What we know:
The complex is a heterodimer of chains A (203) and B (197).
Chain A: H1 8-52, E1 58-64, E2 73-80, E3 83-96, E4 99-107, E5 113-120, H2 168-188
Chain B: H1 3-8, H2 24-29, H3 34-58, H4 67-89, H5 91-97, H6 108-118, H7 123-153, E1 155-156, E2 159-160, H8 175-196
Antiparallel strand pairs in B: 1-2
Helix pairs in contact in B: 3-4, 3-6, 3-7, 4-5, 4-6, 7-8
Amino acid sequence: MAKKESNFLNMVLALFIVTAAASFILATVYNLTAEPIAQARESKRQLAISQVVPEFDRLESKNFLPPGGGDSLEFNYAFRNDEIVGVAINTWTNRGYSGRISAMVGFDTQGNIIDVVHLQHAETPGLGDKIQKGKSDWSDQFKGLDPATADIRVAKDNGDIDAITAATITSRAYCDAIQRAYDTFKEHFLSQQPKTEEGGLAL
Amino acid sequence: MNQWKNFSKGLIKDNPVYILLLGLCPALGVTTSAFNGLGMGLATTFVLLGSNIVVSLIKNLIPDKVRIPSFIVIIASFVTIVQLTMEAYMPDLFDALGLFIPLIVVNCLVMGRAEAFASKKDTFSSAIDALGMGLGFALALTMLGSLREILGAYSIFGFKLIPGATDGMLVFVLAPGAFIGMGYLIILFNYLKKKTA
């Protein structure tokens, strides 16, 4: 078959056919993968929630606006025998080294951090991505901290958190996300709990 | 054409990264660890294989003046297919590599093979060429990634070489280490090429 001549009609036709075929194929692939992708994301979310709160038998979700403004945070209340055992908060920060970082922070009913796992980020591979649980145990230092007494900022800013070597911006951003979760949690959960005689919080 | 020669040229003699100096941007950018290098190399191999086959099949239907935009559309489609499929069925791998997948579109290796090889040769040769070049690219990225991971983090594919050591020579994980490592690997490959030629 001879090569097609580069005249106007041939060029328009060729480009039209190539782009139309590409759109059709991509639409098909998108439709085929849309459901598995949604499932994968949902199971990732469920997994993240179960990693940061104690064992639960029921979940309830509600959105709250953070006091500092910006997008709302998703509170996932974890119930066991109809009692709240922890709250997993889907929080975010825009201070990452490259774009938004979102993370799941779990609090117990006293306001202590149970654990933190990242959900999505675009930080530098090999440096900033150490916020991921599998890549390093850096985020374990948040376990058990009470943001009311501990300072959730990196040591360079006189806080209590050791920054990741060569990824101070990422570490700062992660602290910012956790602080945002705590501030919102304080406003919409802790402050609404009646105080007990010991000064602690009861349900 | 001798297909074994066609395949093996991509590994050393015409290694895309160290001899042809193609696709340096991902080669420098993603190779902070051996695993990242290997994953990026294999994803690129798949895209290269797909685009080379399609380009060689339709090369006579595309007028010369619009061949570049057509190739770009074909390559970008394959990249998107890889991205969607990986997110749907291999979420763990997608977690590790998702950031780099869209970068394959701008990898001049893929464009270069479509333009220089697939648009002139038959489909079978183009597929063999894509496999050889892709594996050569994967080899190059894995080598650079391993070098940087060994020196920068004292580990290889995530396994610690020295127990207890946390941070290695950090410069090798950062951008300058990519250039230093690549420089020495270019020397090595040119030496190997001279020796085998």
